[in-house]
Amino acid sequence: MEDSKNSKSAEDKNYPNTDYSEVDKLLHNTTEIDISSTPLASQVASELNKRSLLNKAEHPTPKNTRIMAITNQKGGVGKTTTVVNIAASLAKAGKNILVIDLDPQGNCSTALGINHESTVPSIYESLINSTPISDIIQPCPDINNLDVAPATINLSGSELELVSMVSRENRLKNAIENYMNYRHEQGLPRYDFILIDCPPSLGLLTINAFTAADEILIPIQAQYYALEGLSQLLNTINLVRTQLNENQKPPLMLITMYDARTNLSNDVVNDVNEHFPKQVLNAIIPQSVRLSEAPSHAQTIITYEPDSIGALAYKEAAYEIATWTYQKKI
Ligand code: ATP
Ligand code: MG
Asked: With a threshold of 0.85, does the pTM exceed it?
């Protein structure tokens, strides 16, 4: 087995050759300010260092658009929260981002301040009627460089409608490809990242996301039964990879809703790292009231409370994703 995280030779040409000792220094540097003797002071110092380093960190621009599906068929694990905050972090770092809301609940559209009433043209029309994505996207009102393909309630009927359609697993992939070609022809800037928010199921919408995406991110809630259902999810991902999308990279995992006061949260972190040592991001998203409040203000944590611990954790995760180097084998 090769070490995917510490390797300095990026095997995949798409990604910049990252020096991970520099990344580590950036993310875990505690030498810039004095660390006092108490554990709390040292933690605060470390957070402050991280914050200032992350705010000035250069996020590499990928050579080709990176398309990532954020998925877990388990409900309420932090998929949408992860999509909107990683997207906002990357956009704030100057990357061009498209978020595709593929969940009929439309939570992602809400959190990004996007109108998604049932009359609004949405990803449903792109999937079912082949409406170009250029006709449905809306810019995020609060964040530059961030476009959103919204979801409306109409999408809830699409699983059934897709069943009888030609090339039903490839509808999203084709729509994205056509849109990227259109942007190229129009001289519009290329997206650096396209993030897809999946619904909590393994139906045809999620399969469309897996077929379209080169990369997968699985948020794992540091709570009860975190790993339950994970093998079913990984089997489905593998099936799509072998049959429909052989270039897809092995999935990454992000621990969410971590509560340091509970043994349970620490057990989940240990379990996930033990089972998937090369796929888990170092960043851990804490349980945070601020994170859960932000969507009700139609905002991400990055704009709502940019200096909060939740914002810092998502900026760290975004930086890690931007600099991640995949290896062929894990
Ligand atoms: P669904 O499966 O319904 O799409 P999801 O996996 O997308 O859910 P979210 O909607 O992101 O999950 O989060 C579920 C709930 O938990 C939301 O109310 C959200 O605001 C809240 N939440 C998400 N992450 C955190 C966190 N780190 N700390 C506290 N609350 C959180
Ligand atoms: Mg969601």
From this structure: yes
